[in-house]
Specification:
- The structure is a single chain.
- 25% of the residues lie in helices and 32% in strands.
- The protein has 190 residues and is of the alpha+beta class.
- A hairpin with a 4-residue loop joins β7 and β8.
- The protein is elongated, with a radius of gyration of 25 Å.
- The protein starts with a strand and ends in an 11-residue tail after the last strand.
- 12% of the residues are buried.
Length: 190
């Protein structure tokens, strides 16, 4: 694309001398010269700015794939074709079959770059008043989440401990209090 008019009426073009020329009504043109690699960097900068605004993640290995988080799923979009795939973290990590396609690799890279907020070490965590007016503690032990309470326990529990921890982690309200070391299974030998 060599001739473009922005929504504010300013024209943008690249002339024969590789200059970017801004055509503003009732003003002389103002050419800006930049090297081709600088122009690529500027395009990528504005694309990254737009990706952040739209809440999407672009796969560095192949930027034609963008990934949107949809709850615990990844929605992978191949921009040139418009194809969309949706996959869960469990499915993407459990896939061991051969011939994994690029969209699948993009989803795996997305999940690697955005770890599950509940993939935490065993320990006790405080939930800072997310659900009830009292402080709540949850414990992760051997990969399972358990309820612990400071003060009176609620009469009707509506969320599992894992749901509480997941929501609190997403809101930034899950604070580690005690981390439980892994038990020594070697009998003291190293």
């Amino acid at each position: 694309m060599n001739d473009f008019t922005a929504s504010n009426g300013i024209g943008v073009e690249i002339n024969d001398e590789e200059q970017i020329v801004f055509a503003v009504p009732n003003r002389p043109t103002s050419p800006v010269w930049m090297k081709p690699d600088e122009r690529v960097a500027l395009r990528e900068f504005f694309r990254a700015e737009e990706d952040e605004r739209l809440g999407r993640w672009r796969w560095p290995e192949n930027p034609e794939y963008v990934v949107y988080r949809a709850d615990d799923d990844a929605r992978v979009l191949h921009e040139p074709s418009g194809q969309v795939w949706v996959i869960t973290r469990r499915a993407v990590n459990g896939a061991t079959y051969g011939g994994i396609q690029d969209w699948h690799r993009a989803a795996r890279a997305f999940f690697d770059a955005h770890p599950d907020p509940l993939d935490m070490p065993d320990g006790i965590y405080m939930v800072n008043k997310t659900f009830h007016p009292y402080e709540r503690l949850v414990q992760r032990r051997r990969g399972k989440w358990l309820h612990l309470y400071r003060g009176d326990a609620p009469q009707h529990e509506t969320h599992t401990a894992e749901q509480v921890a997941r929501i609190a982690a997403k809101e930034g309200r899950l604070t580690p209090l005690v981390q439980v070391p892994e038990p020594d299974t070697t009998g003291g030998a190293s």
